[in-house]
Specification:
The complex is a heterodimer.
Chain A lengths: L1 H4 L14 H13 L16 H15 L4 H12 L14 H26 L8 H16 L1
Helix pairs in contact in A: 2-3
Chain B lengths: L1 H21 L20 E3 L7 E3 L8 E6 L4 H15 L4 E7 L3 H11 L5 E5 L3 H5 L7 E5 L5 E6 L4 H17 L2
Parallel strand pairs in B: 3-4, 4-5
Antiparallel strand pairs in B: 1-2, 3-6, 6-7
The chains are: A mainly alpha, B alpha/beta.
Chain lengths: 144, 177
């Protein structure tokens, strides 16, 4: 039972790092990178053979002191932006990044317009007959 | 009137969106950034001869069909007869990239089913395959005379795909100087 409850970390061999900073970078990178085989998992969680190979590549590049951008660039050059869980902001992803904000603003605008329209409904004018009926009622009230 | 029109328009637009999504094809196929780029430089031992190498230079100067395969790969058996036929007709030079395999298994596989490849490279370490952006077997690349990758198919090559897409592309690339 205990084994099942352990975190689903798929690293088969315990990795050794020169510095804790490198270990952190490695962990961060494999969590940010997508496994190509099981596409809804990152490299950290995937048990696919390819994910194992790519983790090894990332590990070696981290150990070689390569910068995060270089490591990510290495994978993007081979597999495309698809390996990134956080796609870069560019023309083709513009809608993906900004549509939520556009929708939010549109929503705020619609609610605002709706509320204003309701506030601006002019108070109904009473007809002459209603006015006299009202005066009558008020008079009766005052008598009591 | 406009009160009824707006939901109608939204409905039609959503339906259009979902319909286009349905016809977009296999979502597991990732477009390769290597299309239009040169073949990554590599040196790998030949499958049939440990002493000899296959390098990216061997692919230059002719149109090449590069097939990533493995003896463990069931779908590879499905497309294999097509490659045998192509090899028989000498339409194009077919090279193999044997991925994550055991040498004897791979050689047995070729002995059993026939060998359509001019040569196969043996990528036991899978490093070169990563450089090619391989993420599943089979994969097939069309490479032009200058060593530029022109086309990539992830998954099995069907007869239709071969006749309608790959062969016309090969003929076109052959005409290039």
């Amino acid at each position: 039972m205990l084994i099942i409850l352990l975190p689903a970390q798929a690293a088969d061999i315990p990795l050794e790092f020169d510095t804790p900073e490198q270990q952190q970078r490695y962990q961060h990178l494999i969590e940010e990178l997508r496994c190509l085989v099981c596409q809804n998992q990152n490299l950290a969680d995937s048990h696919a053979d390819l994910a194992q190979d790519l983790r090894e590549e990332v590990y070696e590049m981290v150990q070689d002191g390569k910068a995060n951008e270089d490591i990510v660039g290495f994978l993007v050059a081979r597999y495309g932006d698809f390996v990134l869980y956080r796609p870069p902001v560019k023309l083709s992803t513009w809608l993906l990044w900004f549509a939520p904000f556009i929708l939010l603003l549109t929503g705020i605008f619609v609610v605002f317009r709706f509320a204003r329209a309701r506030m601006q409904v002019p108070p109904q004018q009473l007809s002459a007959a209603e006015q006299s009926q009202l005066t009558q009622l008020l008079k009766e009230e005052n008598k009591d | 009137m406009i009160k009824y029109l707006v939901p109608m328009i939204i409905f039609v637009m959503l339906t259009g969106l979902f319909l286009s999504g349905l016809h977009k094809g296999d979502p597991t196929v990732v477009p390769s950034p290597l299309i239009g780029k040169p073949v990554p430089a590599f040196v790998l031992p030949r499958l049939d001869d440990v002493q000899a190498n296959l390098t990216d230079q061997d692919l230059k100067g002719k149109v090449v069909l590069l097939n990533v395969w493995g003896s463990y790969c069931i779908p590879c058996r499905q497309e294999h007869p097509l490659f045998m036929e192509l090899a028989k007709q000498k339409v194009v030079a077919i090279y193999g990239l044997n991925y994550a395999d055991v040498r004897t298994d791979a050689l047995d596989w070729l002995k059993q089913l026939g060998n359509p490849f001019v040569m196969s490279a043996f990528d036991e370490e899978r490093r070169v395959s990563i450089d090619f952006g391989v993420y599943g077997v089979p994969e097939t690349y069309v490479i032009d005379k200058d060593g530029i990758i022109r086309y990539k198919k992830v998954g099995v090559i069907s007869e239709e795909l071969l006749a309608e897409t790959i062969l016309p592309l090969i003929e076109e690339l052959k005409k290039q100087m």
